[in-house]
Amino acid sequence: EWAIRFDGVSKTYPAGGAGTGPAAVHDLDLDVRAHEVLVLVGPSGCGKSTTLRMANRLVEPSAGRILLEGDDVTRVDPVQLRRRMGYVIQNVGLFPHRTVAQNVATIPKLLGWDRKRTGERVEQLLELVGLAPERYAKRYPHELSGGERQRVGVARALATDPPVLLMDEPFGAVDPVGRRRLQNEFSRIQRELGTTVMLVTHDIDEAVRMADRVAVLSSGATIEQLASPLEVVAR
Ligand code: ADP
Ligand code: ADP
């Protein structure tokens, strides 16, 4: 049983407006199993972010297809795609002029949830990520520490209880001690919810700590080829 399948996926970014550049991702076949944490590692520039961003259609593949629970992602309505696949990035990208609660409520609002349902969900999520709602709901992002912002990012991404979470260097901007704590807490949350996670990192320690499986995206001069999922790395 798998949650995401990359089937012969390639991405070539246009080079300077004319012609084609080298492939950022080349003929990638990869299955992410339901409920697992698959960590994608590899040197900078090897195509990790591109791979994630093709899954949620921030980047369109040049070739191949990507299936989310059997559905070709190009055929899924964009708002439904957001509902089914959360996305967490380094430095979060919180909306600076919206409170913590409003940030977490972003996708529920897009989906037209009513106030009561949204409010309850926001409260539940803030509790889940360890931010007491009465202390944090009304704050603005600049009133939070880096680690707290990252927690809000996780809460926002989990708002619709998505089966899949894409995480791109999610704890990269957090100090080492805070990072360790976030990793542990996130692992607990992930197990509790059974979320399928595809996580990109260049931090090998993070990969070993968090992964059920590790896939290595290797960097060549031009062509990057994903070795099929490598060994199971025990938690
Ligand atoms: P990683 O996440 O492993 O660091 P990326 O997926 O960000 O790698 O980038 C892979 C390659 O694609 C790099 O050579 C990068 O410069 C290039 N690239 C990434 N995004 C773009 C873009 N929007 N336009 C052109 N080239 C890009
Ligand atoms: P808006 O006026 O844009 O709805 P609000 O600040 O009232 O902004 O709230 C945004 C969302 O966050 C709402 O759906 C609301 O239910 C929820 N929310 C606001 N404050 C809290 C809080 N203290 N605890 C839980 N949820 C809250």
Automatic annotation (TrEMBL):
Domain ABC transporter positions: 4-235
GO MF term set: ATP binding
Domain of life (superkingdom): Bacteria
Keyword flag Glycoprotein: no
UniProt keyword list: ATP-binding, Nucleotide-binding, Transport
Family: Belongs to the ABC transporter superfamily.
Name the record gives this protein: ABC transporter ATP-binding protein
Range within the parent protein: 4 to 238 of 364
